[in-house]
Amino acid sequence: MRKYIYNVLVGFDMFMNTIFGGLPDETISAHAGRMEKRDSYWAIALSAILDRLQPHHVEDAIVGDEKRAETVEDLEKNA
Asked: Which of 10, 24, 38, 57 has the maximum number of C-beta atoms within 10 A of its C-beta?
């Protein structure tokens, strides 16, 4: 049940990210990490807040998004 709730929350995160102009398969945290590299002020501020709440949150979010993408690719190859 925890995995299901986690997946629903990640899906909602991706949905909200898309509404605010992010890529459809990325979370808000990963979007902030990507935009932080482009010196976006909102992304720098959000990344700082998230990293205070959980160290390395943005970097972990980017890695998590990449792992989810690899999982989807593997599922599609094996379908």
From this structure: 57
